[in-house]
Design goal:
This protein has seven helices and four strands. By secondary structure, it is of the alpha/beta class. It is globular, with a radius of gyration of 17 Å.
């Protein structure tokens, strides 16, 4: 099919990029982050794990600057629950809040709309050990607390929230 004339997208259409924390951040054992189910997965010998990934944790400023250079207007990323609440519940990790606060500020600096997914297949491993993961209602209550921490700390700067990635899975 060939088009003689392309229709314009609406002015406020959000062209963007999307990542998940475990696929890009790396730094799996830094600044208080605890293991998630992804971190505990035994990768085949010929497959890279996510311990370094794209090193977005250390390079987010460069990454966001490149997004701006490409003309992106939105960045859909996930927050690693294990950076915010290393135990899945309990004490909040200030370094995790700092990282995501800085990431959101960097997006705003370039007028890139942050679109946040709170869960992208990286359940805190501590919740698997303690409650058997999502099979327990306690895990849902833990997610509620985690969501509240996210909203309280980033809700003034994040307009779009997606609780779960691919919730049908």
């Amino acid at each position: 099919m060939q088009y003689k004339e392309l229709k314009q997208f609406p002015e406020k259409f959000l062209w963007g990029a999307s990542t998940s924390a475990y696929q890009v951040e790396g730094a799996v054992a830094e600044d208080g982050k605890s293991p998630s189910i992804i971190d505990m997965y035994e990768h085949p010998e010929d497959v890279a794990d996510f311990s370094v990934a794209s090193d977005h944790y250390h390079r987010y400023r460069e990454d966001i600057a490149m997004f701006a250079e490409m003309g992106l207007k939105a960045y859909r990323f996930s927050i690693a629950w294990t950076r915010i609440l290393p135990g899945g519940t309990g004490e909040v990790n200030a370094k995790g809040l700092e990282f995501y606060g800085n990431l959101i500020r960097e997006c705003r600096k370039y007028e890139i709309e942050p679109v946040v997914t709170m869960y992208h297949f990286d359940l805190p491993y501590a919740l698997v050990e303690k409650y058997n993961g999502w099979e327990s209602r306690e895990c849902a209550f833990a997610f509620e607390r985690y969501a509240k921490v996210c909203f309280e700390n980033f809700g003034d700067r994040v307009k779009y929230w997606q609780p779960h990635n691919e919730q049908n899975l």
